[in-house]
Amino acid sequence: MFIVGLSGLTGPKTAVRGNWIAAAGMGIAVLATLISVRDTATVNWILIAAGLAVGVLLGVPPAKKTKMTAMPQLVALFNGVGGGTVALIAWAEFIETDGFARFTAEQHPTVALVVGSLFAAIIGSVSFWGSLVAFLKLQESIPRKVEASLVKSAKLFQVCNVVLLLGAVAAAVCIGLNAGRGSPGWTIALVLVLAGIMGLFVVLPIGGADMPVVISLLNALTGLSAAAAGLALDNSVMIVAGMIVGASGSILTNLMAKAMNRSIPAIVFGSFGGDGGADGGAVTTTEQGAVKATSAADAAIQMAYANQVIVVPGYGLAVAQAQHAVKEMSNLLEARGVEVKYAIHPVAGRMPGHMNVLLAEADVDYDAMREMDDVNGEFNRTDVTIVIGANDVTNPAARSDPSSPIHGMPILNVDQSRSVIVLKRSMSSGYAGIENPLFFLNQTSMLFGDAKKSVSEVIEELKVL
């Protein structure tokens, strides 16, 4: 059911069904685990029921109430909880066996218990604390100046991470070598603390532009740690579920890294960019020259008489919750015979598939959502491209400027369109913290303001044309 559910996530039309199937599979796994408990005399069913109730109360309300703009944060937080759970399981096994001092032939093989528990303790702790930092970054709870200074201190963090990793592994090896004789409780605590600090130090200096890849990587690590815990507990469901999550997360991480033309080590150890500057007024001049401001009326006229319009969504669309307005605008254009397509960059937004989910929520036809490789050949014959809150994924410096931090990253070839309209609150830089030359091209005009309000104004102008 996990595998069938995962296969359903390949498209919006089957995603909901896939989620329900996978959730039902997990429900069966939990029920089967409770039924399989043999020695009911030592099981505190009240504690188990209380734990289930707490999990439901903590899990369901956030999932129901969280807006799509905050979905990346929720994913990071839930993923972190999974890693933390695995770390606690490893700790519990250490306590249960008196520091791996006693075993029974019917229980667990010594090697699987010790190695699986220690691996789960390290990776689970890294995933938990790293995911918390990712959550704070996505929530923008870390001040921009602090985040910028953390990014600049990346090399210092890297040195500390090497020391922390060696320390955690050394402590784990000592515990393993003493298996059978038992290790004091502080040794496993040391492993968890060192791995936890490493989780913090790994993610703290990584810039905001890399957060989607980081979330995917942490998700993969959580899956691998769960599989290791499954080996320790001799639990087939944890092994299967953990390996599915670990494998799919690893594949997704690799695909996203390739979409940025960067290696995973380069992202983890050589991040770039923090959050862009705070939104200000409609600044119209920078070092690169002047930008042209436009109005909703002019934008409506351009699109109404175009043959093809491409919409490029970004995180600004998510912040403004403008997806429904964009869908209404597209309906009006299509009613006039204009072909409308949506260009989706693999790392647009702040988590994998963020833009696809937003547009699907507004009932945008899945066939109209075009992946980067499929749509890039369309821009040079497109009359108008409207960029809504996207920045770094449309930056032509990635192709033309070898000194740019994002040089070599595949982008949407928006600059090849006959006309480009950029919806943006201000001239502040994007998530990578660098300026976008697209805004200064002759065919580009800027429509400043909140994306939802700007699109609504364009809709009103289209209605009167």
From TrEMBL:
Enumerate the InterPro entries for this protein: DHS-like_NAD/FAD-binding_dom (IPR029035), NADH_DH_b (IPR012136), PNTB-like (IPR034300)
The membrane topology of this protein is: Multi-pass membrane protein
Q: What residue range is the signal peptide?
A: none
Quote the Gene3D superfamilies the UniProt record gives: TPP-binding domain
Give GO cellular component annotations, separated by semicolons: plasma membrane
Q: Which GO terms describe its molecular function?
A: NADP binding; proton-translocating NAD(P)+ transhydrogenase activity
* Catalytic reactions on record: NAD(+) + NADPH + H(+)(in) = NADH + NADP(+) + H(+)(out)
The keyword Transferase appears for this protein: no
Q: What does this protein do?
A: The transhydrogenation between NADH and NADP is coupled to respiration and ATP hydrolysis and functions as a proton pump across the membrane.
PANTHER family named among the record's database cross-references = NAD(P) TRANSHYDROGENASE SUBUNIT BETA
Family (UniProt): Belongs to the PNT beta subunit family.
The name this protein goes by in its record: NAD(P) transhydrogenase subunit beta
Q: Which organism is it from?
A: Mycolicibacterium diernhoferi
